[in-house]
Amino acid sequence: MRTVRFGIIGCGMIGREFASAAARWLHLPEMTVRPQIVAVCNRTLATPKIDWFRDHIPTLKQVTSDYRELLGNPDVEAVYIAVPHHLHAEIYLEAMEAGKHLMGEKPFGIDRQANEAIFACVRKHPELCVRCASQFFFFPAAQRIGRMIEAGAFGKIIEVNVGFLHSSDLNPDKPINWKRTRQFNGDYGCLGDLGPHVCTLPFRAGWVPRNVRAVLSNIIPSRPDGQGGVVPCETWDNATLLCEMEVTDSGERFPLTLRAHRISPGQRNNWYIEILGTAASARYSLRQANTLEVLEYQGGAEQQWRRIEMGQETAFRSITQELAQFGVCDAILQMWAAYLYELHAGRPLSRFAGCARPEETALWHRLFTAALESQAGGKTVPVSR
Q1: If 0-12 CB within 10 Å is exposed, 13-18 middle and 19+ buried, where does residue 184 land?
Q2: In whole angstroms, what is the distance from residue 118 CA to residue 120 CA?
């Protein structure tokens, strides 16, 4: 069993999710590589988050508030960097220049310029495994849809609808945080935060946006500052994009509607995808996280949606029985298994069982940049190649 020693830069919720996944590694009996967390970095050390790591990670040897100290640690082979968007380019580049394998958080740069700098460094260091985190790709139903795409089961694509809807900002009295501030989150707003999760599966399918008409909404333009005052809430709350997509292999085109909404009444954390094709269709939503609906056309027979209860149909086998339901923590564990597998083997387990690649982050940056131009001009804008 190969052990890859990790440092975590940014000890918030998702940093702790990785630590929890690493602690559950025995849940994956066929893995021949495992993570070991040996270092953490957080801007503030006097915080319960750091106490949590010290209390629960027995392999932890370094705790620092300076990420450069962590990157200079020769015992750290790989890093997980989970920091606000404005820090991505600075820290990602330094991590790669330090020779560390990298799992980064979306959107892989606060804007297109930052992403291009990151991508240039990736090309400079082909020996490193550099990927972007997105766990929804690894739900069993999404994996099944990926295999259907790979097998050509849908026939000619008619239309695709994808989105990530939740209600985290529905309360107008919720105090502002960095994700609602342009300085830290960037001009993309909700697109930079939620959009990459939505793009991952279509882009992996080889569906490339040619143009976009975007409608972006700043629904709550000011929020409490948490100190008794009110400050501007500068970022976009909701984004709806209509894209003309092109299939890389065939050149066929179809419409794709993408929604990234932070203010979506009735939702909690709903990632969904619907694919309509001439031979079959499929739809899936986290509102029914273990149910995939498929419609297959057989001659002139009556059309009927078939419900498939997925259970533990995972890319990387776990010890949980196949009939058991699958959840978000399981998806995070599968995502990390995919990253460690590719780092160790030099290739993904399969086409749809790999984390988001730097090339895919570059594509969503081109799309989001065009979406901002579309919103500003009220017009359809080409997505640059």
Answers
A1: middle
A2: 5
Q: What is the pLDDT along the chain (385 residues), one digit of tens a residue?
A: 999 999 999 999 999 999 999 999 999 999 999 999 999 999 999 889 999 999 999 999 999 999 999 999 999 999 999 999 999 999 999 999 999 999 999 999 999 999 999 999 999 999 999 999 999 999 999 999 999 999 999 999 999 999 999 998 999 999 999 999 999 999 999 999 999 999 999 999 999 999 999 999 999 999 999 899 999 999 999 999 999 999 999 999 999 999 999 999 999 999 999 999 999 999 999 999 999 999 998 777 788 999 999 999 999 999 999 889 999 999 999 999 999 999 999 999 999 999 999 999 999 999 999 999 999 999 999 998 8
Q: Is the pTM of this model over 0.90?
A: yes
Q: State whether CATH 3.40.190.290 applies to domain 2-132.
A: no
Q: Which two tokens stand for residue 179?
A: 């994700």
Architecture of the domain defined by 137-325+358-382: 2-Layer Sandwich (3.30)
